[in-house]
Specification:
The complex is a heterodimer. Chain A is mainly α. Chain A is built from 6 helices and no strands. Chain A is flat and about 70 Å long. The chains are: A mainly alpha, B alpha+beta. Chains A and B meet through helix 1 and helix 2 of A and strand 2, strand 3, strand 4, strand 5 and helix 4 of B.
Amino acid sequence: MFSSRSIPTEAAYIGDELIQDQQLSDLDRKCLVVRQTLQDGDFTLDEALSLYEVSKTDFESFIAKNVIAELHSTFPQMQSSKLQAVFTIEVLASIYKNLFSSVDKRSMYILQHLQNLSREIEEDKVLL
Amino acid sequence: MTIKPQTHSLNSIEVTEIKSLGFLFQGISAFQDEFINTHFANCDLLLFLNQIDDILSPVCNSSINKYIYLNNSPLPELLIQYFTNNYEDENNGLALSRIFFWQDGELVVKHDYFRLPASSRNKGIAKKIFQASLQQYINMGVRKILVHAALNDGGYVWARNYFSAINQDETRQILDDAKSKLTPVHFWAVERIYNNYYEKNPSGIAFPIVKWAELPFMKDILRGSNWHGVIDLQDREQFTNFILYVFK
């Protein structure tokens, strides 16, 4: 057997290959770290975005993609895109209601719009 | 990607099959199946070695040395080595070494050494080996994967693969290096991450060095760094990052 103590360690290109094979983009990797630094209290949002060179729009899009992925993974049995869309709209309405209905006096317009959209999808008036 | 633990009990017929694959057992000379079932329960060693052989044997033309070393003192240890005679040749050598051992009552695997011939790199071989390995780690209840991040950019690459840094002395050394090379504003950020972690975890052994690795100005500093890394497979965040973002 060879002596592992006398030779170099796990080659870096092995790790490089693992990174290249993954479907995660460099931007996604940065967004993940930005989120981690926010959760751990390392930086404020503005500091983290600036340090990791991520735009606010890209970070918001990353968070949205994660929320959508979470929604889809929660109910994978919903095969129909119509059912998924209606369910997603209801979740969005619930989120809005929870976060803003007590402070936004016009929240009813948004909630009404979401309700209409949901009904139109169900009636195939809006095609997905 | 979901990896469900599978049970397995190695038997003497499988040991014979392992030997017929060309693996030489060293250390404990008899009842190897009992030793593995007792100390490394649920390791499907025959399947694992078959997978290693299937993945790695096509990448080299020369003969391959295959060893299983079983050691019972001071603590049980299982070492798998697979290498060509020219394993020290950086461009043409092939070598894989994995050591399973017990540490503070936890089963740990050290990713000791993995080298591929230049002609076989970036062809998905590393990923296949890691995937086959991970199934066994889950089966066996491995708690941690250890790696020594050093040489030829290893310090940067393994950080980006979500390994955390174990030793504060080593992260302190990287911090000192950063202080001498970075602007005050950049160093402020690097130090902030360091201080925030060690203030909350005074005896911390899992510094999230990926936070440094993704800072654009830390790339060159980490490329020359030397540190010991760990993935804790029972830490939900570390495990999720490793599984989802390395093996997705």
